[in-house]
């Protein structure tokens, strides 16, 4: 084999490995992913982990937000699961050990299974319930910010996804309003809009916080509260 042919062969092999890397990581993560159930960390944080779908989902007790986890390979055959903001949430070892990472336990806390759980689902509301939810959420945000914040929700393809985006977004704004380090960003807020589109995204401009969900991707097409906070804070 000539030098040129060898170089071409190596380049083709590397291209193939790069192309296969995401699917290989997904396959490895499916093997390592713990089963659906309730879990609790040594630090006392309890959550439901749902591994029944294409992407694993996680919801902490006392929270309405469902986190979509994305796997990335780590040394020694471990898998790290991150949210859409890139924050590490779980680390699963090759032998099934689980560690939870949160702001309360940034160095990690071992996790054990505590029981069975049903798969996580987005809420479904009727027209009256939706209207009442928007009114309640507007009142909660307005009270936290200290002035009237209007809320618009325009969802014809997946109302359930828009409703969850509304809950997640308003919860994020309320947390920011109560935190002195992020209060300044919230002071510029005038309006929250939840819309549908072809790509999940968050923008904050001229007082409007605009959250776009992608109904074609289901729960994966809804930005998390971490992305909302990062966008509003300007990081």
Task: Note the main attributes of this structure.
alpha+beta; 13 strands; 235 residues; 4-stranded mixed beta sheet
Describe what this molecule looks like in 3D.
The protein is an alpha+beta fold and 235 residues long. The protein is 34% helix and 26% strand. It contains five helices and 13 strands. The protein has helices at residues 3-32, 127-145, 159-177, 183-186, 225-233, and strands spanning 37-41, 46-50, 57-60, 67-68, 70-73, 79-82, 88-92, 98-100, 109-115, 150-154, 191-196, 201-205, 208-213. The protein has a nine-stranded antiparallel sheet with strand order 4-3-2-1-9-8-7-6-5, covered by helices on one side. It has a four-stranded mixed sheet with strand order 10-11-13-12, covered by helices on one side. β6 and β7 (88-92) form a beta hairpin. The longest helix has 30 residues, at 3-32. Keywords: Signal. InterPro entries: DUF4908.
Biggest sheet descriptor: 9 strands, antiparallel
Q: Radius of gyration from the CA trace?
A: 21 Å
Strand fraction equals 25-35%
Contiguous low-pLDDT stretches (5 residues minimum) are 5-11, 16-25
Given the C-alpha coordinates, what overall shape results? globular
- Amino-to-carboxy terminus distance: 52 Å
- Helical content (DSSP H or I, runs of 4+): 25-40%
Structural class determined from secondary elements: alpha+beta
Order of helices and strands: HEEEEEEEEEHEHHEEEH
Q: Strands of the biggest beta sheet: in what spatial order?
A: 4-3-2-1-9-8-7-6-5
Q: Count all strands and give the number.
A: 13
Mean pLDDT equals 86
Helix count, DSSP H or I runs of 4 or more residues: 5
